[in-house]
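Aggregate trends can hide what the representation actually does to any particular protein. In the encoding step, the backbone of a single protein was reduced to a row of integers, each denoting a local shape. The record that follows shows the chain in one-letter code together with its fold in token form.

***
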Amino acid sequence: MTDDLVERLLAGDHRALARTITTIENRAPGYRDLVSELHRHTGNAEVIGVTGSPGAGKSTLVDKLAVAYREDGLTVGVIAIDPSSPYTGGAVLGDRIRMAGNAGDMDVFFRSMSARGSLGGLSTATTDAVKALDAFGKDKVIVETVGAGQNEVDVVKTADTVAVLVPPGSGDDVQMLKAGILEIGDVFVVNKADLPGSDRTVQELREMLELRRDAGAGGHHGHGAAVDPDPDQDGTADETPAWRPPVVETVAETGEGVPELLDALADHRAYLEGSGRLAEIERTRYAEEIRTLLREDLRDLLADELDARGGLSSYVEAVGARETDPYAVADELIAPISECVERQRATETGTGESRTGNGSDDSTTENGTDEQ
């Protein structure tokens, strides 16, 4: 079934694409095999993250971006990460209402996904859904995030270019960016620029970005200076100038400023390609993805081990009675997994039995080798 679904998706079947993303989001049986098959067909789409504070107009602006890309003949995929329902875990789906500009266009694929309680607003399934859109052949994939304030930084693990939207208003909105979200933006957008206070917000943003640059704060990918690994003939290395995030003013409702935003996004893409940072971003992305999957898998293994021991209640009671402590409980629960890992490592390296393996004795050192 996986092979058939992948074949149909690669052939341009929109139903297969929708079913694939549903399988991924629900973590249905076989989803890992599905994503593995898709992975080899990825690497062509440009992924753009759009984030910012609630009410900044992200959904409306994303809709206008999709329209503009379609006018240029490009295909677009949009993943809108909606807040999760605390009761069902499902998405609120409010973004669908604000993205009507592309209704009926089969070359714009829109999908709402639930944040599922992820701290940074992005569930693990988002990365896999981006792969599905990439493999399908979408030229641009736009990921719009919940807009949860300073924790909204997971988007940098998925996107090549990140646009941060800021609504005009009091300085508090800009001050909030210091807490973390300022560091992830490649392009800053003051949306609703027709409202009072927009000029002040633009000025404050530019001043803060300049202060960060003067202080040598590198932020995430693309902000620090890149050094050419191939020195010139005189032996000196060429340093690529650091990317300086521009501040663009837009009015999403009318489309004003969208062409300038498109230019800014294109400029950053050109910078990434010219400086070699695009390959660096890809390596970082895969490293983060592997770490995330390892954490999830280990969590599931521990949950199974806990269930096999009758659940957490008895441990909680023992801790409350001061018969044990949380660290000791954690050590006890993870011990079987640690032992399996050590035995496997010892087998693969040919160093003999691990120190925690059955039958180990005093003649075995901690690294599994015999004392001479």
Q: What stands out?
A: Residues 85-95, 221-233, 354-372 have pLDDT under 50 and may be disordered. Residues 43-224+239-275 form a domain with the Rossmann fold fold (CATH 3.40.50.300). Residues 345 and 354 are 8 Å apart (CA to CA).
